[in-house]
């Protein structure tokens, strides 16, 4: 059995489950495992230091799977922006047919992607941005609630309200993101009006995820309380693991510090060390509140088939039993 939704139909994937872009984590091994499990994974373009490296990473992923996968292009306003057009051209030339955009308005990139027959899923954190992206012509929306790892935006609306509020306004396929880690979440997202779920933290904690075992063990040991929101006063909030570094960043900025004062603490070169060496206090690393729902380190295949089969059991078992018991009472 499989769960068929507007999303699985439009994107030609077996299961309504997405592995969104993850800086340092979204590499070929993980993305191919997600594809082989029948879900949709995204290579994170900017994890690759140059556009040429991205081309190699896409080729490496192709060697590991013959199923569809995509590339995430995170467009962030930075002082020294990466060569976005070159990364975009590499994606187009590679023949990949699905892109996840995030970070800012996808408009400058849409015509090139669409001309190349590429479907674009735009990830955003508010209903107004979702509506805007839909009007620009993106092919699906992924909406990230306050629970999520990475950038939850500044509105602080959790998924329980954000997802149905978005579903009221979005006609194209809608992916619910942030805080999803198991079958209960998938069924809840479908009930709230979404056509699938996106998971970051949960996929990060799998056998194929290319990060140090100690980080995965820390996610299993962690709870929903063990994240920090950094950069709040700068209105560029990011949800990351609570550790010595993130707590120091929060404290400095709360005291009125400026970005310059925390720049070295939050450097990507420090963050990547966490994943490479397993030193949990080496720098900033992203994880969401769904950490409280993650209790094991399965293979991606085990994880996806568990979520799908348990979701089917919840729908055909527990939920439909609720209806039939009412009907029995009515008959009696
Ligand atoms: C380690 C990590 C790195 C991430 N990096 C990115 C990124 O570069 N671009 C992006 O669009 N989202 C990024 N995200 C967000 C995820 O794609 C996804 O939206 C989020 O993890 C969903 O919340 P969850 O962790 O509760 O599942 C990252 C998430 C994690 C856990």
Automatic annotation (TrEMBL):
| Signal peptide positions (record) | none
* Enzyme class (EC, first level): oxidoreductase
Q: Which Pfam families match?
A: NMO
Query: Which InterPro entries would you find in this protein's record?
Result: Aldolase_TIM, NMO
Gene3D superfamilies recorded = Aldolase class I (3.20.20.70)
Entry GO MF terms: nitronate monooxygenase activity
EC number(s): the record gives 1.13.12.16
Q: Mind telling me which PANTHER family this protein's record contains?
A: 2-NITROPROPANE DIOXYGENASE (PTHR32332), 2-NITROPROPANE DIOXYGENASE-LIKE PROTEIN (PTHR32332:SF20)
Protein name per UniProt = Nitronate monooxygenase
């Amino acid at each position: 059995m499989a769960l068929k939704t507007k999303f699985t139909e439009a994107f030609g994937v077996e299961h309504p489950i997405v592995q969104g872009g993850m800086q340092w984590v979204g590499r070929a091994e993980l993305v191919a495992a997600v594809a082989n499990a029948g879900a949709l994974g995204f290579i994170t373009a900017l994890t690759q230091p140059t556009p040429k490296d991205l081309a190699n990473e896409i080729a490496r992923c192709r060697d590991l799977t013959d199923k569809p996968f995509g590339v995430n292009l995170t467009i962030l306003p930075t002082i020294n922006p990466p060569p976005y057009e070159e990364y975009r051209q590499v994606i187009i030339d590679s023949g990949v047919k699905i892109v996840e955009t995030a970070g800012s308005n996808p408009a400058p990139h849409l015509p090139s992607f669409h001309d190349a027959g590429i479907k674009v899923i735009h990830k955003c954190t508010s209903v107004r941005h979702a509506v805007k992206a839909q009007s620009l012509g993106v092919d699906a929306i992924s909406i990230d609630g306050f629970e999520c790892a990475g950038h939850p935006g500044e509105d602080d609306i959790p998924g329980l309200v954000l997802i149905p509020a978005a579903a009221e306004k979005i006609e194209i396929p809608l992916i619910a993101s942030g805080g999803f880690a198991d079958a209960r979440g998938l069924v809840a997202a479908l009930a709230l009006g979404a056509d699938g779920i996106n998971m970051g933290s949960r996929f990060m904690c799998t056998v194929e995820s290319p990060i140090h075992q100690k980080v995965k063990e820390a996610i299993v040991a962690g709870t929903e309380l063990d994240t920090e929101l950094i950069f709040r006063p700068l209105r560029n909030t990011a949800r990351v693991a609570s550790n010595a570094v993130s707590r120091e960043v929060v404290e400095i900025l709360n005291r009125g510090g400026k970005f310059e004062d925390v720049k070295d603490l939050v450097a990507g070169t420090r963050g990547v060390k966490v994943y490479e060496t397993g030193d949990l206090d080496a720098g900033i690393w992203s994880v969401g509140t769904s950490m409280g729902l993650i209790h094991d380190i399965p293979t991606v295949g085990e994880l996806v088939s568990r979520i799908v089969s348990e979701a089917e059991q919840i729908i055909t078992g527990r939920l439909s039993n609720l209806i039939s018991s009412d009907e029995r009472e009515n008959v009696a």
